[in-house]
Each structure stands twice: as structure tokens, then as C-alpha cells.
Write the C-alpha cells for this entry.
Amino acid sequence: MTATFEDLARRLRDAYAGGTVSPLRDGLDPTDADGAYAVQTINTRFWETQGRRIVGRKAGLTAKAVQQQLGVDQPDFGVLFDDMRIADGGRLDPARAIQPKAEAEIAFILGADLPDAGSTAEQVATAVTSVHAAIEIVDSRIADWKISFADTVADNGSSAFFLLADAGRPLAGLDLEGAAMEMTVNGAVASTGVGAAALGNPLNAAAWLARTLAARGEPLKAGDILLAGALGPMVALTPGDVVVARVAGIGECRFTYGN
Ligand SMILES: C=C/C=C(\O)C(=O)O
């Protein structure tokens, strides 16, 4: 290994403005989760010093369909910053993205802290104040999305932007596992899935996030937004695309990838 974690973190930061970089093989073994999270954390701290505010976390690689797309077999997480949020019905300027893809998800907003490294899905459920249909726009800073597990973890879970349906619903009575997802692009169905795709139930993905972050000493807090992971395959975006995600019984949200 010739590159340090600081080198890799700087390389990924520079890619946001300068364009994609090669896979990080000169400093990270493709399966080195600890090293990859160390790189992610260097950049999280860096961005915080630049005034970006953490508003939540994303779980990723929770759906078999997405794991297969990327050739991995475990979930990961990334940080959601305030400036990554797009309004429901809003626009994402293509100049702000490199090689974006959209994923339809279920999101939770927490009303209580989750400090327990043994948090269960039931404990998370008691902390949830609202459930939303959501879209995450992922955008690898690694050229052509040729990512290993370590590459995507180091690169903030390949996260870039997200939006939540304005209308949220209380958790009580919702069938999260059975909720059918359909995402259309320009009116044509581009991705389908179901809530159970996220580790069996989106609450399992949220509990995985809660445990993982508590164990790292950075527990989820009241007010945090949690993205529970893609419910179906991700879809590459082209300027002009209008993307709508519908999650049955939960809601829908949309954005335009264009000026
Ligand atoms: C590479 C990113 C994957 C996700 O965001 C996901 O599976 O939700």
C-alpha cells in the first residue's frame, strides 16, 4: 500500500469538483471495512469543519438486488449532510453530479436518541416519529462505478443527494415489509421492489444503523433522518429525467434531474 488514509480522503474530496478517481486499491484492500470507515470519517470531520451539518445517516447495500449489482454481501452506511437534501418536487442541477443513479427507499425521522449498541427493530420503532417515501441519489466518485466494498464505504456510501416525501406517516399500522415500491423515470417503470428488500424490513436496516453507530460512539439522535436502503435496483440518470418514487401505503416523492 502506497497511499495513506489521508491521501485517499483528499483524493475523494477533490473528485467532487475535479471528476472521478481510480479505485482506491493503492491504499485500501477491497474488503477492508475498518480502513474504509477511517477514510470516510476523515472526510466527515473535514466537511464538518467546512460548515456542513450532519442531519442523519443512510444505510446502503441492504437489498440483495443492490448487493448483486455491486458484488458485495454486507450493508454499509454513509452520512447525510444538510446540503444533500433536495425538496420534494425539486430539481437537481446535473452540474452538481458526476454519474448519478436514483434509488427508491423508505426513510424514518427519529423523535428520540438511540444510544444502545444492542438496539432492536422494536426499540427503533418506538423512536420513529414519521415514515416517508424517499429517493437517494447515489453518485460514485470512483470512475465508472467500478467500486469494491471498501471504495463505496470510503466514498461516504456513494451517497450524494436525497429527498423525502413532504407527507410523512406515523409508523403505527404500516406494513413496511409488504410495501410495494415502484420508481418511474419519465413515466416508465424503471425499478420495482418491496420493503422487505431492506434486510427483511426497513426497521431492521434502521436498527443495524443504530447499533453500528452506537458501537462507534456516534449514536443516532432525535431529529435524525434515516434512509433504510434501496428497495430495488438503482437507475442511472440522464439530464431531463423526471423521477417519481411510490411506496404503497406510505407515499410518493419526485424530483427532476435538470435545470
Ligand atoms: C452504492 C450505494 C448503495 C445504496 O445506497 C443502497 O443500497 O441503498
In short: The mean pLDDT is 96. The longest helix spans residues 33-49.
